[in-house]
């Protein structure tokens, strides 16, 4: 057992941290100010040009597509600029995701943001050569963006078999119909492709009925009905959309891995994606703890620094303990994915999905409280971090469903069916 | 001991509920849609006309200024339309505040919204006849609005003695300087007066140094620097402002109750105000539980209504228990205020300020979780309710300070100094 | 709404408090020392003589059988010495139960201890004149004790319909068979009667199958197999027993209220009993908070009284808030029982059963922590109080079952079946 | 980063598990029954002979003194039978401690129980050759036992500088006076030596005033005043004693590492000891989860296995998550100790001391609840496990003090003094 990072992880961690300090930190406050101005008067969905400049710089330093999974990266890491020319293991990538999580724009800058990373992984693992050429390469290049459309407004989508949208094969076409929401990324003007999940054959076995289809964003019949807010925040320029699909026809070759394969693909897609989400949240929680400690030492009330008042020290200690526990749990889940693949880490991946957002929400809440009214405002990244953590208790499956998975596997050890 | 409401409370509760069902509920969704449209393109700070229409209706039915405290209402209840022509006890008003809390606009409609109610109470109890004529009467009439400016951005304002703004007497004028934030209400175009709290005499005893001054909103030197958001929400049309005061000169007669009286006034002001805030939050929590139960019965996953999945029933039970405990605690605090005044209820008022927002936040969070992604969006009032509950853990004094008050009084029973 | 106690409640509260201070407090430490000695070498099941002396004194002052319910007391309150000659309402008795809860022996001293009170209530409400003469009168007289045998070791007894013990009518006898445990009170040498619950007619409707039978403690076939401990504690001299019943024959007249009535009786029995349990726990929690505050002020570490270290003040405040909320919830449930009977207060009674033991456990835990190692030992009443609170999360129905009841009634408001 | 155990750890884990299954599990229930009988009538402080038999078997298989620290074991591992002839790293020993923790007697059987392990470590690291010959060797041999006497009844011992007991050098003797309690191990008839900590020079620097002295258990002036219980449990045959020292004179050579060195020694002693305690608790928590899952599948209520009722599955999932997080935190702390020694792991060691007992208490509580009344009794190891976990929130420093350490080190990163 060895908790030290590999040399490559340590090197990349140092370089990502340096890039963030030198290139992102100086411009990020201005970025948020400009975005706020656009929200008041202008178009916040039009990405600010600084993003493209930062992307170019990151790519020039090899800090590009670092999420590429070691075992599936092939030569894409060479062709699309990942430092070292090969992908990383989950456990090596994890600390980089943590760092990126500290900034609202870093994931985009390093071409490592959700849902594009997950979609790229799907194409890497399951895409046909044509699908990869058409969609994966421009995504790796950072030229286009993508969305993932699975959740539906009209049913409890925590049970994916509830899905009512359809993807019916009709000759050499697939006909796509239905309504999806919380489709992250559809707000971006560069969004060119939607990974759509729908019912193909209701007669099939419960987990073989659905297909995943690549639907061009501007195909006839695709309509972004509105952009949703999460607690008042629209997360421009990616955003979360409600999208209707009306008799959308795409070639049958747009189905990924063939009809009925959607659940098999989703299974493989979600493990690393959840590790990334969780590590980014851990980065946010660390940032919140830093801000909280700093504030607790700088501000005084009743003649003492806040740090020395009431239960603040104990809460700071609890935050440190909670973050460290959560990070170790995620690293361990990442390692399980590395050594045995998604089926080896079903419980672990659901565990982190439950534990980390709740931890982050609590730590950030504590830091907000130390900031007084300021903690509620946009003057600090805390309110936004809090919203992100809260949303993650629902996104990618609500806590309750993941607890159900963990319990089923636990009770299964004692012979329980489900 | 008798937990039944008085006849007057029962009658008014029924009538307020009826008004809300008949007049407010049908128009509120449209109100929020129109406000959202104004946010995207327009001026959300300009109150929608429906508000004035509703105010007129409420007043016509005597559902106006119901917050007026029994013992201080004098003939204002008669002159300004409160049903029955006299004020209410705290314990009788409490269930009305709970009902109003279920709607984002009802408090305004009934002329019972913060911070105007608190400011009116201050003027009732401590204002001179001139101050009451000039400011209280138009407030009771619903013609103008007001703000309370106490919290400062540059110091930990949870310790009010930290305050750096000044209100210096200079002959027959007071000169006001400083910077305040979280001044609720300054965004409203009808806001005509700011109750300003500042340092007058640093040589005086710690709680006799500050004065409360009535500053006209448009006096030279008063500037609303910006409107703050709480977690992305601006709470138009009232809003929370950052306000600078630069050599603002007002007549010395604008000091309420004389120089050095600010802390004495604040003490008396805050008890009922906190009861109101807490009862409104209880209303929000009840609404959230209702929405949660309804959703839990309507939506199904894994072949069962959500209500029958996992821990949902246990969480619904915990929510019911938590709400009922909180309501009883607030009613008891209101009763203590009624029978013995603010000094009789110091611990109780701080207790509810700690217990209720935390309870509401938890209950609303549970209901959000039952709503899935929808719970995060503006499609339901839950996200806004959550923000309101979270903010109340800081507004009017952070939890930690109120716990300090409760502990001081508790340990004082055993002879502890402080 | 009026939170002030009635005159009678206030008077009795003062007198019970006085009796406890003057008569019980001085001898209780010695009582526990003597009991501990008997545990090491002797027979702790033989009640110490001081108990009978205290009972005589309490009775002489009219502080006897105060639990007698107003609406069922009849002339028993006169004949058996209750002050004022009539029973009390639940809401008037509640503060007396709280006081008694502060002492491990007070409930016995005032003839107000479980399970005798519950059994006496059953006989009062449902007993035949003969049953009352034979069992109720000596119980009211304090001459005998009783036990309630319902829970069974071999099935999950949280679902009472699981019960496997039988009470089969055979001519003019009932034949009782089965094994029960957690039969509180069977350890006492004065225990003369067991209220037994068993299956009579499996063909009947689910809640009409069981009967309640009065079984003399020394009837042939009744055997106390062993006395159980709760976390190492045997609660002598009452204790909790495992009891086997083997072909025990008693007259059919020993069935209370007729065959098949057990559930109907249990329903009525448990409301007030749970109010009593909960109020006693609130007394324990108050005692723990007192001890905690005292210790926090007396002991110092790192140069300060414990009260001023870390989060101790905040925890003391949270304890005060939690106790007050819990007390109000129980008083409200007691009032609901008073005004509408058990069926009017189903949710309320289950609510307190969930909320109060958890609250007490937490508050006592906090006080233990303030006492350091001493808090774990028998030097303070905290460890015993903790055990009592923990046990109450299972006794009289586990938390989970009561949450189920609350949720069922809550969801029922929206039309849910169960 | 690699979470796989070393080969040696894996091998020993398998062999310890096998020994426990083959040798300990079959006799442990009988051991507890016999001990319970001795408690009722007999001398529970006289160890049952089965213990010595098991010790001999364990030693014969090399499963002896496995706690011996790699870097200090020297040739003791060879001479006293540790498999492989050398000590283990903390990270390799950790899973063995977890396994041992599942049994109340295993730590004794493997000669790996507290406080002997800690005392042996002190002698290994800081003892003179004579001290090691006299005390360490018989301890490693399992012939004698020891106690650690630090906590005092009259002061808040969470602040060790509060200590009032004295160890005054008088020529070539040390004179020891004072009163200690919670001296674990003094109840055992083989206890031959007490490691005593007392004040030597009040003029010295705060952390240089105290000495650690080896005091023979039967030296004149040493008196075990009484054996303490934790929540009714005496933990025979080791037990926790209150011990008085009255003018006890021992040679000055009995001071470990010289006068004034007590704090320096304590620092080094406690790191590994806390890892051991925590891993044993994790073993108990795992056992509780196993028992809970088994019970949840075996027992039914309301027509379903408990596992499918209410929130039970979610609680089982939360338990799994909590255990795994806690284990990783401890393993990481053990690794930090291995790679950098105690000063490298101050925060980590305090973190686990806070996190693990609280986790264990919660998980065990959940399992108790699933067991109904049985969970409170001695029929299952849960009640005892619960008591052990609760006690560990105070033993070796209360949670609050450890949170203080973690917070101090955290705030120290931002320049805070203390």
UniProtKB/TrEMBL annotation, chains A, B, C, D:
Record keywords: FAD, Flavoprotein, Oxidoreductase
InterPro entries, alphabetized: Acyl-CoA_dehydrogenase, Acyl-CoA_Oxase/DH_mid-dom, Acyl-CoA_Oxase/DH_mid-dom_sf, AcylCo_DH-like_C, AcylCo_DH/oxidase_C, AcylCoA_DH/ox_N, AcylCoA_DH/ox_N_sf, AcylCoA_DH/oxidase_NM_dom_sf
Cofactor: FAD
Residue ranges constituting the Acyl-CoA dehydrogenase/oxidase N-terminal domain according to the UniProt record: 9-142
Domain named Acyl-CoA oxidase/dehydrogenase middle: residues: 147-248
Residue ranges occupied by any Acyl-CoA dehydrogenase/oxidase C-terminal domain in the UniProt entry: 263-408
Subunit organization: Homodimer.
Entry similarity comment: Belongs to the acyl-CoA dehydrogenase family.
Name recorded for this polypeptide: Acyl-CoA dehydrogenase family protein
Organism: Nocardioides koreensis
């Amino acid at each position: 057992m060895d908790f030290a990072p590999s040399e490559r992880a340590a090197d990349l961690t140092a370089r990502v941290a340096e890039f963030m300090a030198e290139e992102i930190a100086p411009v990020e406050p201005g970025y948020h100010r400009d975005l706020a101005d656009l929200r008041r008067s202008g178009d916040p969905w039009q990405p600010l040009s600084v993003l493209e400049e930062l992307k170019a710089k990151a790519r020039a330093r090899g800090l590009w597509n670092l999420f590429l999974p070691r075992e599936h990266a092939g030569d894409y890491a060479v062709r699309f600029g990942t430092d070292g020319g090969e992908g990383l293991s989950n456990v090596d990538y994890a600390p980089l995701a943590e760092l990126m999580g500290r900034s609202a724009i870093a994931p985009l800058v390093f071409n490592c943001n959700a849902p594009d990373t997950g979609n790229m992984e799907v194409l890497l693992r399951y895409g046909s050569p044509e699908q990869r050429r058409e969609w994966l390469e421009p995504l790796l290049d950072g030229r286009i963006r993508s969305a993932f459309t699975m959740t539906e407004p009209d049913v409890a989508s925590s049970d994916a078999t509830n899905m009512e949208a359809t993807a019916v094969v009709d000759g050499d076409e697939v006909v796509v119909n239905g309504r999806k929401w919380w489709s992250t990324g559809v707000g971006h003007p560069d969004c060119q492709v939607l990974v759509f999940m729908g019912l193909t054959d209701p007669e099939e076995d419960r987990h073989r009925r659905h297909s995943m289809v690549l639907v061009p964003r501007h195909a006839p019949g695709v309509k972004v009905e509105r952009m949703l807010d999460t607690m008042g925040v629209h997360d421009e320029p990616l955003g979360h959309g409600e999208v209707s699909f009306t008799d959308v026809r795409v070639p049958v070759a747009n189905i990924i891995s063939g009809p009925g394969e959607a659940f098999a693909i989703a299974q493989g897609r979600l493990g690393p994606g959840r590790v990334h989400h969780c590590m980014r949240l851990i980065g946010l929680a660390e940032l919140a703890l830093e801000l909280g400690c700093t504030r607790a030492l700088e501000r005084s009330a009743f003649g003492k620094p806040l740090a020395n008042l009431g239960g603040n020290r104990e809460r700071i200690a609890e935050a440190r303990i909670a973050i460290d526990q959560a990070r170790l749990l995620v690293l361990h889940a990442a390692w399980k994915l590395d050594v045995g693949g998604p089926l080896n880490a079903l419980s672990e991946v659901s565990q982190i999905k439950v534990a980390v957002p709740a931890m982050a929400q609590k730590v950030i809440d504590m830091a907000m409280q130390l900031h007084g009214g300021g903690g509620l405002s946009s003057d600090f990244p805390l309110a936004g971090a809090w919203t992100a953590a809260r949303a993650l208790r629902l996104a990618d499956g609500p806590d309750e469903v993941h607890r159900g998975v963990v319990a089923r596997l636990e009770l299964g050890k004692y012979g329980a069916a489900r």
